[in-house]
Amino acid sequence: MVFSSLLFVFLFFAVTMMIYCFMDSLDKKNIVLLVSSLVFYAWGGPRYLVLLLLMCLISWLAAILIEDNREDPIRKKVCLAVGIALQLGLLAYFKYATFLLGNLNHIIGFPKNVPQIILPIGISFYTFQLISYVIDVYWGDVEAQRKYWLVLLYAGLFFQCIAGPIVRYKDVAYEIENRKVRLSEVGEGINRFTIGLVKKAVFANSCAEIADAMFPQKLAELDGIPAVGLWIGVLMYMLQIYLDFSAYSDMAIGMGWMTGFHFKENFNYPYIADSVTDFWRRWHISLSSFFRDYIYIPLGGNRKGQKRTMFNLFVVWALTGLWHGANWNFVLWGLFYYIFLVIEKNGFLDILKKLPKAVRHVYTLLVVYFGWILFKFSDMAYLGHVLKGMFGLNGNGFTSMEVGLTFENNMFFMAAALIACTPLLKNLYHWGRKKLGRVRMVRYVYMVIEVAGPSVLVLIATMALVGNSYNPFLYFQF
């Protein structure tokens, strides 16, 4: 079990930052971050701390051997292949062994007993980071890090190792050993962190409560949920997953700024996209860029003809689906997007550009909306009942008094959650500051907001979290 949100914010992170600020050298600051990271990870699963240490050791050794054998192409390739194979082998065992053996059992009856292997927290994220590190050393984009503990710090940094963003070593290599903390960036980091905290505590958790109420655990009870209830449930899940995951990225980026690290953005308001292609330029950017740079382009990208391009895209999106989870619904989710991206790539995108922006936006949201249905439900029977029920084919009716009351009681919150998924408030804030900033009273209001805003947001988030001892982020499970 990972830290509760309140324990993390007011004890673990607060104490870590207090000690960090008192250290008089960067090496000591790094040691503080490393020790805190190991404690944080061990708290979520002590036995899997050994796995993190081992996988970092493999990448550390592989990178050094690659660099030491740079003049010998064969040895260099062998070191790369062995390093990546060991990483992927460990990931496959912990994440996919149960899935693969379960399918074999279903098809041929062997093995009779399928082991239930617990997925280590964050393994998908730190494995991809370590793989990118080894490949970048192989390509000569970065020098191998000779200090094992700094590779461990890079992969295990507590504020991003378990749910991203996927940080490439070459983007932080200099900062690991040479960064400086600027007071202005600490302030920006606090603002970004508190925004993420409110996104999670106030919006994502509340969206989850509404969505869960519409999707009972038992399949037999699902037929009692009317069509409107299911549509609302999927909408709330759609908002939840963005607010939840982007909240973690906001908090990671904010904590990075507070300690001198600069992580790249992981989200750019994906729900304002006007095509599926545009959506994937805005959603989980670090994962999309990883598959682009380390899978799609090395396979040939779009340089080897249309058929090869389609094949390369198929591989990328099948792997994108599998990366999210060891279940067929994730594979279908990845291929669902593959189909729409191929359609757009083969002329439909040109047609879309000629349509009004509102039409393009509605089309994109509908595709994404139904995509999240595939993503959410791993039970195929349950998934089928949800899709049928959304069109009243389960004999479940159109609406009910309970659903009506749920909507009435939450419609203002739903509107606020929708706004929170857009840059509307951010744009209004900057517009007001630019256009009205010369007015003394307005300037004072902005000063108060900037000084007191983070404290108010933390207070609001704390009030929302009180009574909820465990608020896991959705992407912890991936």
Could you characterize the architecture of this molecule?
- The protein is mostly helical.
- It folds into two domains: 5-179, no CATH class; 185-298 and 349-465, no CATH class.
- Helices cover 74% and strands 0% of the residues.
- The radius of gyration is 24 Å and the shape is globular.
- The two termini are 15 Å apart.
- The model has no long low-confidence stretch (mean pLDDT 90).
List keywords for this structure.
478 residues; mainly alpha; 2 domains; 19 helices; 74% helix
Strand and helix map with partners:
Elements: H1 5-22, H2 26-44, H3 46-68, H4 73-108, H5 123-139, H6 148-156, H7 169-178, H8 183-214, H9 219-222, H10 227-259, H11 276-282, H12 285-296, H13 306-324, H14 328-353, H15 357-376, H16 380-389, H17 401-420, H18 424-436, H19 440-465
Helix pairs in contact: 1-2, 2-3, 2-6, 3-4, 3-5, 3-6, 4-5, 8-10, 8-17, 8-19, 10-15, 10-17, 12-13, 13-14, 14-15
